[in-house]
Records
---
Amino acid sequence: MQKSQRLIQLIMMINAKKSFTVRELADEFGLSTRTITRDLQELSELGIPIYSIQGRGGGYKLLQDRMLPPISLSESEAIAMFFACQSLDYFFSLPFGEGAESALQKFYHYLPADIKEQIDRLDGRIMLWSPYRSMAPGILQTLMQAIMTGEVVTMEYNSSSGIAKRDIQPIGLYTSSGYWYCPAYCFEREDIRQFRADRILSAALNPSVPPRDEIRKMTLMNKPEKGHLDQTVLHIEITRKGVWLLESNPRFAPSIQRNEDGSGAAAIQIATEDLRFYVDLIWNLGSEVKIKGPVEAITYIQEKVEAMRSLYS
C-alpha cells in the first residue's frame, strides 16, 4: 500500500474511533508502532486535530471537530463547489466564522494543477455578488447556534421605536439584498416576528428561558405568514420600464398584471405595518410607479415629495 493511501485510510479510521492507541493502529495495519507514530506525527503537521493522552492507559484522541473522509469529485463538480464557496466572499458577515474561508483554502490547495489553472482563469470573471452590508459576525454565529440547538437568545434590538431587550427563539436565517434576516418567536409579543440581524446590538444564548417545542419544529419553509396581522392592499400603476424593473423583485413580481403595451398594475396584499417599507421601495423608482391606494400610502409619498422639495428649494 502506498503511503498516501495509508494516510487516507488512517484518517478515516481515527475519525471513526475518536480514541485509540498506537498499538491498536499498528495491529490494524500490520505495521510497526514506529511507523504508525511517524504517520500520526505527519497527520498532525497537516492539521488533523490529534492530541496525546498522558499517563497509564493513555493513547491518542481526536479533538471534537471531526475530519470528514475524502470525497471524489469530477472536474465540473470541483469547479462548481469552489465557486459556490467563493460566492460567500462577497458577504461582509457570515454565521460560519472563519470556517468557510479555511475550507475554501484547503479545497483549493488539494485540487489538481490543471483544475487550479482553470479556476485561476475564471478569477474575477464569475461573481455571485451581494451588496456590502456591515454587521457583527458574532451576532450571526449566536443566532445560528441557537437555531442548531433550539435555544432562546436574549438580544438588544434597535427598532423604529428604540432599543429594547427581547427574548427570541430563532426559526432560521436567510439573506436578501445583502441583509441577514431572522424570523423568530418573540416571547414579549408572544408571536412570530422578523428581525434584521444588523439591527441586533448584542445577542447571547439564554438557557434560563425554556424554548417552545412547536417553534423548534418550524423551518423557513413552514413558518406562519403574517396573515394574522392587520392587512392592507397596495395598489400601483406601473410604466413599461417600471414593469421591467419590478419583475425581478419577488415582493412585487407575482402580483404584476401586464397590459398589451408592456405597462402594468399590481395589487399587493401586505401587513399594514409594512406599508411604509413598500412605499420606500416604490419611491426609488420615481415616476415609473404610481401609488393608487390606500390613502395612507399616498399621504406618505406626498410627505416624502414635500420633504424633498423643501430640501432643494
---
Amino acid sequence: MLDYKLLQALAAVVEQGGFERAARALGLSQSAVSQRVKLLEARVGAPVLLRATPPTPTDTGKRLLNHVQQVRMLERELQREVPMQEGEAPLPRLRLALNADSLATWWAPAVADLCRQQALLLELLVEDQDVGLRRMRAGEVIGCVCAAERPVAGARSVPLGAMRYLAVASDGFIRRHFAEGVSARALARAPAVVFGPDDQLQHRFLALAGLAVDFPHHLCPSSEGFVRMIGAGMGWGMVPALQARDALAAGQLRELIPGCHVDVPLHWHYWRNGGQLLELLTRQLLEQAPRWLGPIDG
C-alpha cells in the first residue's frame, strides 16, 4: 500500500511550485516535506522530482500524481455518501487546465449552474490551447480544455466545439500600417500582439491568407490585456469572435481580412476513474459548450 502522506507531499510541492509553499499549505516544516518526498523516492526506488525552480515531476512522479488526482476525486465522492466522523466534508475542488480565451468568454456561464448545485470549487490553471494537455500528462490536473484530440493514457477526450478567431486591429492602426492594403511587406513591419511563445494563431492565419512572413510582436499573456493592447492601437492580433463581437459592431476594431478566420477545435480531457463529480462536469460541458462554440470541421 502507498503511504498517502508521502504522496500528498509530492502533490503539494508540484501544485504549490516549491517546497516552502508546499510546507505552508500542509502545515508542516519545509524539512518535513523534503523528508517525505525523499522517503517516497526511497520506497518507489526512483526519483519523483527534478529539483528545479519550480520542481517538476519525473516520469515516475507523473504516474504517482495521476494516481493522487484520481484518488482525491474518489475520496470526495465517498465523503458525500458516507458520514464523516469529524466535522463536515470539505467542499470539493477540481484542479483544471484551460486556455485563457475560454476562461475569458464561455467557460464561466457554461459551468456556473453545476458549481452552484454541487457546491463545487474550481482551481484553474491557464495554459495555451495548444499545450494545455501537458498538465494532464504531468498529473497536475483532473481535467483539461485544449486543442489536442488524443487523450493521455488513462484519460478520455470528447470534442466541445471550435472557437473562431479573427485577425483584428484598431481603425487607426490599420490606417497607419495597411493604408495600401494587407500585404506581406506591410505585415513584416506592422507589430502584432501574441499571447505567448507557444501561440501560433497568427502564423496559421497568415498561412491561410497566403501571407506567411515573420513579423515583430508584443508578448501579452493575458486575454483581457491582449484585447486592450489591440484596442489601443499597439498591434494586430487574433481575438476570439466572441470577445471581439461588440468592439467590431461599435467600430472600435476592424478585421484585417474580412472573411478570413482560424477555427480552433477544443476538446475536454478527463481521467476515466475521476468519479461522479467529474462525469457531471463532463455532461455539463457537452451540453453547454455548443451555445458558444461552433462545429468542428471534419
